[in-house]
Amino acid sequence: MSFWPRSHKARRRLTIVLACAPVLALAVGLTLYGLRENISLFLTPGQVATASLKPGKAFQLGGLVEVGSLKKHGEAMTFRVVDNQAGMTVVYDGEVTSLFKEGQGVVAEGALRPDGVFVAKRVLAKHDEKYMPREVTKALKNQGEWRGEGQRPEHDAPAPRQDGA
């Protein structure tokens, strides 16, 4: 039994596919190699705690600014970004909008230091009281912590009634 089909037409198609596959693979590989500096992962503090990230690897950290954690030192500030699994200290030296507040959703772009502190190069805060970054909303929904649109987090939902009513 031969690898090649018996039909001349099918054999020609297979030859073309086999000839194009390495070229396509090379093109995809070169594209991903070229974009590697621009690809930025979005992670929550809980995901960062479970992932093994190398210090200096750039990513976006999203979650809620922990209430009572914001400390300003001139233009520099430290705060904690939390989800329902973990929290992470963020250091940022720069200005933020007046909309940046404790208890609000935030996305910080930066990298981890070797001591585990996240150094943000850019901090994005929400624009109004109903806006939440899409990535933060999705991550909070996946963790059952979503409180938008009047919903309760899954762990606060009332227990189902046992009497069948």
Protein architecture, described:
The chain has a 5-stranded mixed beta barrel. The protein is 26% helix and 27% strand. With 165 residues, the protein is of the alpha+beta class. It contains 3 helices and 7 strands, in the order αβαββββββα.
Give the neighbour order of strands across the main sheet. Answer: 2-4-5-7-6
Largest sheet, described in full? 5 strands, mixed, barrel
Structural class: alpha+beta
Helix % is: 25-40%
Query: What is the average per-residue confidence, as pLDDT, rounded to a whole number?
Result: 83
Q: What sort of overall outline do the alpha carbons produce when their principal axes are compared?
A: elongated
Radius of gyration: 24 Å
Supply the number of helical segments. 3
SSE run:
HEHEEEEEEH
Oligomer: single chain
State the total count of DSSP E strands. Answer: 7
Note poorly predicted spans: none
Distance between the termini: 67 Å
- Strand-residue fraction? 25-35%
